[in-house]
Batch of 2 targets.
Target 1
Amino acid sequence: MENELIDFHIHSKFSDGIYAVEDIINFAKSHGFKMIGISDHYDTIKTVSIKKNKLLDYITFLNSLKNEFNLKSAVEIDFSPRTDLENLPFDQLNSLDYILFEYVQDPLWDGYPFWKLIDLLEKINVPIGLAHNNIMRNFKDVDMDEFVDVLETHKIFIEINANDIYTILSEYFFNLSEEFFKLIRNREIPISVGSDMHNKLDDMLKVKIGLTFIRNLNLERNLQLFLELFKND
Ligand SMILES: [Zn+2]
């Protein structure tokens, strides 16, 4: 897997990243990435983001680059009152390869509860995942077995994000949630990896830390399940 770098959480100039998608693809090509996903912020007051009326341009542009590289199109949705969740453009969102949801059930960021995401799934027919979620903190009052059942039923993937922001006292959220990852090891729950790169291309190489975690915890099958979500493309 060392030579099979992948990164499914990357920001470009379409939102608050500083690089053009072409630059990101060139970096990926020259550093041995086999697949990447661009996941710019969708319309949120939190940060620079793709406005609703620009989403189609974004998706069309990403699709036009797919013959250059193994590229997946995505957005990251701020799952909080900062986003107009009532009026999401589902037709367009459903033409993406996947959707990341950040701050799901995260009290520090006013994240909406997990059940609200399940409600939203009635209108979404592409893979969705929880981005950089500190699961053992945000879901500490939840019955873990039930939570895992719901994730499995809805094929919701979990992202392992190796950006330094997602740490507490230098421990990555995924390390802090090791118990959770052991629970999903033999379950049909996909796992993705991401760097949340914004302004330093080298940050994408941090996915190696996430991939090492996956290997050490024997979560390769979960990662495979994630990659298989794209097989019918
Ligand atoms: Zn992000």
Target 2
Amino acid sequence: MANKLLDKVAVVTGSSSGNGRAIALALATEGASVVCSDIRRDAREGGYESDILTPTDEVIRANGGKAEYVETNAADFAAMENLINFAVSSFGRLDVMVNNAGIFTSLHTIVDETEDEYDRTMAVNAKSVWLGCKFAIRQMLTQEPVDGSRGRVVNIASIGGLVGLAAEPGYCAAKGAVVNLTRQLAVDFAPERINVNAVCPGFLATAMVRPFLEDPELNKALHEKSPWPELGTAEDVAKATLFLASSDARWATGSMLTVDGGFTAP
Ligand SMILES: NC(=O)c1ccc[n+]([C@@H]2O[C@H](COP(=O)([O-])OP(=O)(O)OC[C@H]3O[C@@H](n4cnc5c(N)ncnc54)[C@H](O)[C@@H]3O)[C@@H](O)[C@H]2O)c1
């Protein structure tokens, strides 16, 4: 076990599968006590995790780390307030908040997108981040700085918040909201020494993207658009998140860290 986050307390939303799971495991490996949260404790079917049958918090404890699990709908006001309260009452403070929970409905243009698809996408992908930031920052403001920061927030946005992705209207709208909320909060809370940053992943192998990868035409198109020879992994996102969650990112705030194999570089 390494110690970049020794004695730190972290909360991760959507931690049962994919990026959230890899992030929770990476933070714990660096010594953080991790409060895992999701709408389901088991990983989603169709994921690429090697230990998919064991819940994230159990994997962390089996590896000698500290973790708890709180069932939490990240789009629910009271549930998110309860999640932060749980972290503080269990571990004493909150150093790292990772707002990762997200959904993707299906590929369609705005003509075919239903109101329900749009509302669900905005709730889980954008409102959840607003809630997570609100309650995490409220707690961080009560804490004295440690390692130069009162706390670090990392929002998992997407390249869909930076550029228009074909046939993803609601998803891009929600991720665009996450990107600019991140910048806005960085401005308000830099004077308080609270870092607020985002990771913008490109397409990578998780349960969310499996339908793309299993469709030969979509798979080919994704590879053709990515300058890097292969697609990314949840672990690539976790390493970027770990950087932004640690004191290595002391003076980084309001930044969008793209982890996309060069997808948005051209
Ligand atoms: N996979 C990619 O290529 C990719 C690319 C860019 C951004 N992202 C973003 O990364 C994040 C994680 O995506 P992933 O690929 O790991 O997806 P995933 O579907 O594999 O995992 C998402 C997790 O979030 C949980 N979740 C869903 N709704 C929730 C809710 N309301 N409250 C709490 N948890 C909820 C799910 O149960 C699941 O465990 C999302 O915000 C996604 O938009 C993913």
